[in-house]
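Hey, can you fold this?
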Amino acid sequence: MAMMRLRREDPRVVGSFRLHRRLGAGGMGVVYLGSDRRGQRVALKVIRPDLAEDQEFRSRFAREVSAARRIRGGCTARLVAADLEAERPWFATQYVPGPSLHDKVAEEGPLTAAQIAAVGAALSEGLVAVHEAGVVHRDLKPSNILLSPKGPRIIDFGIAWATGASTLTHVGTAVGSPGFLAPEQVRGAAVTPATDVFALGATLAYAATADSPFGHGSSEVMLYRVVHEEPHLQGVPDALAPLVRACLAKDPEERPSTLQLSMRLKEIAAREAQGLPDGRPPAQRARVERPTGRLPEGSADHAELRTERRTGGSAPRPQGGAPGGPHSRPSSPRHPRSPGGPSSRPTAGRTGGRPAPRTTGAGRRPSRPDPKLMRQRLIVFIVVTLIVALGIAAAQKL
């Protein structure tokens, strides 16, 4: 994050914090790098003097502090201190080192598919915590995402609002960034978690192309495109394009949830990191190393997502009980598989022209026998055979 020297008009001390550098300035105020008596570094945000008397801006600032207090987890910078009654209200959060996603892409170019998927998975998981707190960010964009060594962090909840609230406007213009606003924000309709999903989709498109999916132009032109035109996703990797397009659906009901996004992006990140194509055989898909942070097996959310994936919306994955034998791909509604059709590979253990069922304890059919298990069974068989043979020989001697 770029730092600038303090200006003559900047305060040197705010509350119990000494200020060292400017980190940036926005519509509401200035953000400084500060430290407390123990040396803990903070990002301290102070409302501009000309806005400190504006009750609306004070209210927005108070909402930002309230949102920061309510959100749990490592997706945002932790709130350290605040004073909303000061002549110039301020609050301090834990300092997050690292560039913004906007600066990273602007200086070094688009990210790889694996990087985009990893960042997107962390952000969508972070948004789950934000939305569970009853907050909608409403201004998610590349400059509000910091890439820290511990993962991306979402900052600047200055226009965050409770789920279901309508969009605030100034002189008829929606508050936020035109290239990343959702259509419902432009129309002044209620905001929901799906509003942040749209912004996340536009943010991932920027990470892949170094450009907004709705191009450039005046605010009016950009807002019109968001509502009436389809996004331009040329340059977005094939592995991510369908998911990004789903996030940018005009209808909020058609967008995936943040939990679904987190799960799918983790899968894509793991696959891209290993260089596996989308069309790999089911046996290879089963061997993909799962990323950390996945929901535990058996949880309600995990079961819901497994049901959703079986009914569509993601790349095909092997599922238990799929017709056609243990080596076949799962059936698709658009391309039904004939139950009596041949398997994609030779299948051992056929009886009457149909594959002999073999299941695991969880009811899923493995794509191939476990070599280690087969060796163990062979050893047991040999030992039992020797014991029986020795017993027979001993009986004959008697």
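Oh, and this one too while you're at it.
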Amino acid sequence: MLNVHKIWLFSCLCVVVVVVLYFQTEIARLEDKFYKLEYKLAQTQSEPRQFFPKTVEKDDDDLVIIYNRVPKTGSTSFVGVAYDLCKKNHFKVLHINITANMHVMSLSNQYKFAQNVTKWHEMKPALYHGHLAFLNFERLGVSSNPIFINLIRKPLDRLVSYYYFLRNGDNFRPHLVRKKHGDKMTFDECVEKEQADCDPNNMWLQVPFFCGHSAQCWKPGSHWALQQAKRNLVNHYFLVGVTEEMLDFITVLETALPRFFKGATDHYLNSNKSHLRQTSSKLEPSQVTIERIQQSNVWKIENELYEFALEHFKFVKKRLLSKESNGVAQIYFYEKIRPK
């Protein structure tokens, strides 16, 4: 009788094991089928699902952006948007103020600045902005590099704007007296008389801002500086926009970096930030003046960088904002992952 009872228990145990194994096999089969169906669904939907690891919040919260803004490129308008969004989107905005408005830091300050930016965790995530030439953080031995962004403007437009800004100020601080206040000489007259304020060499600013802290960067007309500026723009900048397409620049940033710029496009369109700083009483140069300026080597090199940046920005914008021929935005996902 005891043996019969043991056999019965053993038989029941075997049945249970078989049932458990069967259900485990079925669950695995159904899961595999589910994943295959989910993948096929992602391919057919108008807005496909993306398959990639979940975003780790700490990564975004550790992010640092440096906007080494070139003077008179619309940077005040852009920074105004950032200041308005920083509280809502939970990031810090810090202005980099360098003694005597110098654009190049001493070697010791370069190192200290790199350490501050990357290790000042109480200020992260953060957007730093200031009139500072590009700084290669890899050369300074930091473990994590910040993201660089910038805007660039047609070189002659920037020079003319700055010329009248020194004389007439702007609508941002209209009561501030500038150092050339009272000088009524037009830009055309200045060029005709070959005065220092309209010297084409004064356009040599955007190339060195992208080139960096090398002595060669600051030699007007340096072709080496131009090539270095191009390399830095492509290899070290997350995004470089153009002043003439500020709205698209902001839209691309909002799409690519929503952690900082969520809501930026709508804010730019529906606030007074789109033209926050306009030079007062600016006269457009004559065709004779334009042709004369364009004969200079500095204008040719600065304009080459501008055209290079514009072409690159249009390429980036098209890849990010446009949709494929089937009307679906580009996605990426992972497949054929082994071992399972």
